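Example (one chain per record):
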Amino acid sequence: MGKTEPVLDSITCRGCGEVIPISETIYHQVAERAEREIKAKSVRQERALAEREKQLQACEEEFDRRVQEQVKAAAAELQAKAEQQARQSVCLELEDLRRQAVAKDEKLRAAEQAELQLRKQKRDLEERERRLELDTARKLDEERRKIQDQAVRQVEERHRLKDARRGYPPRRRWGRAPGPSREAAHRRPAQCAI
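Predicted structure:
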């Protein structure tokens, strides 16, 4: 037993000749391998996480785009409804204004027609009044002439009766008493030019 059997739980380093227990070597190998695996797994997880983040960001962008589209569509729909309501309101107001304008035009035409009728009646009344004044003046002149003629006849009759009572012969009838005519008597005498 002089030669010692190599211990199975240790190894000799070929480079330096140091004896290294196997358990420590295996431990380091396992630790290195575990570390490599953990790093690889971590890298895979980071890549998967980055991919997942990209997918989430793409989903979020898609969601934002859809929300924006829906907001735009809703805004456009609301604007269209508001415009339609405004058009309907304006159309109703315009129709009401048109009806009011037609009613005012009709009233204005009726008032103008009534004014024309009143003006015509006024002219007719004025014409009738002028004719009445003219007719009245003519009748008055005619009546004056009749009264004057009757007065002349009465005076002549009185003179004839007076002359007959006195026994004078009847006078010749000249129509009117001799002398200047009544119209000439009423005229102003002509002024003499000296």
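Caption: Confidence is low (pLDDT under 50) at residues 1-7, 184-190.
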